Amino acid sequence: MQEGQDDGAPTELSHAGSVVDKAIEYMIGQDIPPVAVASALLGGSMALLARSVSDEVIVQILNNAIASVRAGELRGPGRSQ
């Protein structure tokens, strides 16, 4: 993997993120509710992880995500629960 020039993220991760962002924009533009979009993306992500890494790695990823939610890292300033 090559490192990205602007943020230190691997180039592949940056590219994948851009593709996902476009897919989200498209689905929202098709009037798919945001919760349905997020649920579909999460389900697809979980299925891909299940084919790619061990269950323990998936648990670690999910625990990191839970910790981020609990710490308020996913909410912008001024947004409440």
Secondary structure layout:
Elements: H1 11-29, H2 34-52, H3 55-70
Describe this structure in words.
With 81 residues, the protein is an all-alpha fold. The chain has one domain (11-70). Helix content is 67%, strand content 0%. It is built from 3 helices and no strands. It has helices spanning 11-29, 34-52, 55-70. The protein starts with 10 loop residues before the first helix and ends in an 11-residue tail after the last helix. The model is unreliable at 1-5 (pLDDT under 50).
Basic shape = globular
The proportion of strand residues reads under 5%
How many E-type strands? 0
- Helix fraction, binned, reads 55-70%
pLDDT averaged over residues: 88
From the structure above, extract its key features.
81 residues, globular, mainly alpha, 3 helices
